[in-house]
Amino acid sequence: MKSPQLLRVTCFVIAIPVFFASADGQVVPGTGIRQSNVGDDFEDPNWKWHPNGEKASREQDELERRPLGGSSNGRWFESPKRGQPDVIERVPAPAGGLPGSNFALKLQTLNSGIPHRPSRQMEQDDFVMACSSRIGQTSAARSPSCTCRIWLPPFQNWENRSGSHFGYRIDCKTTTSEKKKGFLFSRTVREEESYWPGFFFEFHSETDPRYEEDEAVLLIRGNNTGHEVKSIKLTPGWWTFGMSVTPDGRVHYYARQGVEDLRASDHLYSSYPYSYSAEVFATQFFNNVNQNDGQTWSTPFIIDDPAVFTLH
Q1: Beta carbons of 79 and 128 less than 8 angstroms apart
Q2: What is the pLDDT of residue 183?
């Protein structure tokens, strides 16, 4: 039996029927040309993570604490905004993974947030793929997409907290316009705006009186206001997730149980998150989320074969 729930997280979730309709007019993630200069299979025995000191926490205290952490192959880096997970470890791939894949990457964190200052609130660390620095930002006109296989542990190994535990997201950019008044005249200012659509894995703990048993559900961020959309239930084991951006600026979300390539029938949802139309795909990244009390580890997740594709 698990210990009593320590933290209850409130989030805004909109329950909308999952779309299993045809993906006509969309791009199934994984379609087209795989960008070999980004992504990873974690098979290199020399793969290592270099933390490079205490993690960044610019979001909380404006401190980046450079140099940032990074992988030995130059394909991953620590987020200057929220820092790096405490565990970034190449491990044997769990059973049932991709054929021929012997290793994958474990992500887990303990001290999210500002170093040495437990907030006892839900916080997160980021693990970011180096895309823009290696292949440049990818125009939506090229229909970029990304995929990743993610292993979810048995429910008894999840942090005993109802709420989001892990995120798989992309960095998109668009241009916004805002009128600013001057002393005599007003002017229109155009600025680049970053936003981060993606998936969150939400856990419902049996020790939470709202739920009869442990379960996990997939949340999609998000709809045109940026709120999460409740999607399918998740079970332990391997899953394949993917997102694509089409030339009209929409983001499309896909998932299937197992490690097979995504298909049109795996389409879950499409949207203009925050009412933005994506102009650029910059990268994909992962979030480890926990209750930052200095004692409780986040749920351990394992990722494999994250990749980026374009139609041309």
Answers
A1: yes
A2: 66
**Of 236, 231, 272, the residue nearest 255 (C-alpha):** 231
**Would you say the C-alpha torsion 86, 89, 92, 95 has a positive or negative sign?**
positive
Determine how many CB atoms are found less than 10 A away from the CB of residue 4: 9
pTM of the full structure: 0.91
Note whether 76 and 96 are within 8 A (CB).
no
Copy the structure tokens of residue 42: 């974690």
Residue whose token pair is 């947030």: 113
> What is the Cα–Cα distance from 149 to 307, expressed in whole angstroms?
10
Detail the DSSP E strand segments found in the chain: 13-15, 33-34, 49-50, 70-71, 76-78, 87-92, 103-108, 122-129, 138-139, 145-152, 163-181, 186-195, 198-204, 215-221, 228-234, 237-245, 251-257, 267-271, 280-291, 301-310
**290 DSSP assignment:** E
- For 170-226, write each residue's pLDDT tens digit: 999 999 988 777 667 777 788 999 999 999 999 999 999 999 999 999 999 999 999
Is residue 125 within 8 A of residue 58, CB to CB? The reply is no
- Report DSSP state, residue 72: T
Query: Cα–Cα distance between 311 and 259 in angstroms, integer?
Result: 22
CA distance 187 to 4: 56
All domains in the chain, ordered by first residue: 13-41+86-310 (2.60.120)
C-alpha closest to that of 125 among 155, 154, 167:
167
Question: In this predicted model, what pLDDT tens digit does every residue of 21-79 receive, in sequence order?
Answer: 334 568 999 999 999 999 999 999 999 999 999 999 999 999 999 999 999 999 999 99
Q: CA 200 from chain center: how many Å?
A: 7
Q: What residue spans of the chain are helical by DSSP H? A: 58-61, 132-135
